[in-house]
Specification:
The chain is built from eight helices and eight strands, in the order E-H-E-H-E-E-E-H-H-H-H-H-E-H-E-E. It is an alpha/beta fold. It has two domains: 13-96 and 155-225, Rossmann fold; 99-147, no CATH class.
Length: 228
Amino acid sequence: MAHAMTSADSTGSVVLLRHGAVASHRGDVELTREGRRQAELAGRWLAGWRPERVVVLAGPTLRACQTAFLVVHGLTDELPPVPVGGPDVCFALRNPDLYLAGRRVDPVSTAAAFAAQVPGATEADVTADAFFSTFIDAPDRIGLWLHHPHPPGETAQAVGQRVALFVAGLHRALTGKGWLVVGVTHSPVLRAVVHTFRGSDPGEPNYLTGYRLSLNGPGLALAPVDPK
């Protein structure tokens, strides 16, 4: 895998990546063998930026945490003298907050997987809800949420602003030269950031791709990142 030619700059770098490959989105699933391979190779690729210190963060799902662990493994194999912190769970990198029967649920692909997140709920309860029944049947479920004016929870803009505040906090806390923060998240978060700060929808990102984020006034500037 070729190394990037870009280095961590004097104000540091924040990179958000989608998690590695999974077999489905029918609940809190783990990575496939290919997903694990992708994650470790992404860590080796990021080591080519030659950061002076690294922090790896992840959203709270199993697939995000597994990806972050393997990114750390790849980084430390390539950069043994450089301190690499994490992986640590970061709530700011979570999927959008959606609410079903008053309970927060992650966006998943089946009525059964939604019902499993709500004590006492059945698949019929899920399909009786207008938003969730439409979401399950949509060819592009995340696109439906992204463009929905009133989803039952966070809008795309709310998620984009959440990430902007997260990046601003990192820049205040991690001052100095050469640091790199790698955040492992999900496609809804990445698409919401692009939609909020570029006004477009990039569609579903590939696994282990994402964006390098930098502050641009109250918003974010985005540069694509594709570790391969």
